[in-house]
Design goal:
about 0% strand, mainly alpha, 5 helices
């Protein structure tokens, strides 16, 4: 699993290349602030899946998981298989 800092940087560069990173990082609601759309969510899911395949992010995601980068991080940490979450380790 990639460390969150690397995943966050990839999200910032891929999904928000034209936006000021400080604004994206401070946004409490990326959608309402006009910083992302539905395609952005697809890109984020792709990045998360590439960072740690087989976590089935799509079926576990809700709209609130994409509200902010902090919410995306919590979603990533919650769903990504790890030693801290052995119940979701791939077989």
């Amino acid at each position: 699993m990639k460390e969150w800092d690397k995943v966050r940087q990839e999200i910032l560069q891929t999904v928000f290349p034209t936006h000021d990173q400080d604004i994206v990082l401070k946004s409490a609601n990326l959608l309402s602030d006009g910083l992302m759309d539905s395609l952005s969510i697809v890109l984020i899911l792709t990045i998360l899946d590439e960072a740690k395949p087989s976590s089935d992010y799509v079926s576990k995601a809700s709209a609130d998981d994409f509200r902010s980068l902090a919410a995306i991080e919590m979603f990533y940490q919650r769903t990504a298989p790890s030693a801290a979450n052995p119940e979701i380790l791939p077989e």
